[in-house]
Specification:
Elements (H helix, E strand, L loop, with lengths): L36 H4 L4 H13 L3 H5 L11
Length: about 80
Amino acid sequence: MWSGLLDISRNPISLVQNVGATRKVRKARSLTAEQFPSPTERATRTIRTMALLCVCLGLRISEALALRWADVDWLV
């Protein structure tokens, strides 16, 4: 792109091919409101709270684990 060989509007990662990588074959599963309590009923209180937080806010587990009390705006 710097040398002018590629168009500046093109995404350079589109030129990369990951040989041997597999595409996701399995469809992602979703839980209904009735199914949600089942996997968490045997978990500890902390795990149940984290699962509820992830479901309600749409967080990934890595995002939930990175949260700190300072991230919460208590005045809103």
